[in-house]
Amino acid sequence: MARAVACRVITPTGIVFEDKVNGVKAPGFLGGFEVLIKHAPYMTLLGEGHVSLVDDESKELFGLDIESGFLTVADDTCTILVERTAASSQN
Amino acid sequence: MANAKEIQKRIKSVTSTHKITRTMEMVATSHFMRAVDRLVQARPFARALPEMLALLAEGEAESNPLLASRDDVQRVALLVMTSDRGLCGPLNSNLLKVTSTFLREQEEMGHEVDLHLLGKRGAAFFRFIGQEMVSTFQDLSPRPTPDEGDHFAELLKETFLEGMVDEVYIAYPEFLNAAEQRPRIERLLPLKIEHDDEVESTRNHNFILEPDADTLLDSLLPLFLRNSVFRYLLELAASEHGARRTAMKAATDSAKEMIDSLTLSYNKARQGQITTELLEVVAGAEALK
Fold this sequence. Notes:
The complex is a heterodimer. By secondary structure, chain A is mainly beta. Chain A has a single domain (5-90), classed as F0F1 ATP synthase delta/epsilon subunit, N-terminal (ATP Synthase, domain 1). Chain A has strands at residues 5-11, 14-21, 23-28, 31-35, 42-46, 49-54, 60-74, 77-90. In chain A, a hairpin with a 2-residue loop joins strand 3 and strand 4 (31-35). In chain B, a hairpin with a 2-residue loop joins strand 4 (167-177) and strand 5. Chain B has helices at residues 4-57, 91-108, 120-128, 146-161, 198-203, 213-288, and strands spanning 75-81, 112-118, 135-137, 167-177, 180-189, 208-210. Chain B has two domains: 4-23 and 251-288, Orthogonal Bundle (Helix Hairpins), CATH 1.10.287; 25-246, ATP synthase, F1 complex, gamma subunit (Pyruvate Kinase, Chain: A, domain 1, 3-Layer(aba) Sandwich). Chain B is built from six helices and six strands; from the N terminus they run αβαβαβαββαβα. The two termini of chain B are 34 Å apart. Strand 5 of chain A pairs parallel with strand 6 of chain B, so a sheet runs across the interface.
């Protein structure tokens, strides 16, 4: 299945990821959540934890340990602002 | 006209200056490219923040202390961002000229100004004219980090929230291109959120906010402030290296022109000397006949 959520992960020093993905798993303010295709417009505060961008087989395309951030999603476009990262990894 | 030996000495001296300015130009170019790269890299975050805030700030503007403007302004704070090092053309002097005008205008309006100085150049100027400064910061990193921005943002936020000042301004050289930097003074606090019209269409979506608009604003606004200060630091770094590169290029070109003109004078002097010597030899030979 074609990847359909256009996702951007941005830090104060630059864009660390920009591509289409199938899902976004993130540590929300009230607990972990996942953004899939056709998600309702949503904006949330992110807590400390791991942000994971996955493909249709739930394989991680990009992962980032964050301390805090914000996530918005609307019209299958997801923007994640990360102020502080703990460490980053890319598969 | 100076004699050939004197001109030769001057050529040697100008050639050595030419070498120094050329090296400095190359160093400044390398620093400049990296500084501009950092500025460009930081833009997406700086653009995304006001877009997010625009989704929330409508209607909440006056309730948050960082957005609420005060009616009776009596005291303002001004953070002036100058460079630590010189040899960067009129960068600092232009900014200090604009700052002096701003200080005069504030005085005319009856506002007192708390002056905070960043960079040795600005501090030296205000010390020289006997202007009192609340704080000075020196030895800035040539590669500004978000943490450095946090430090200044927290300081200014505290003074604003504690009511010590009613407005906070920032004077910095805006980076336009390598040859052009514009001195600017912007109001930092209370915050102004500016965004593109595209956001208007996004705003019409009924966003689910988690946990709620107030909590999101309370976290986003300080981040916006910190990032603004970080962006100003990046603008300062890019402007400084750009101005230094331009100044050093102008100095190198002038030195080159001077070397050419001195070489011409040297050749003329040497030719004159040879002609005189020849005439003397011919005159001597004639006398012996």
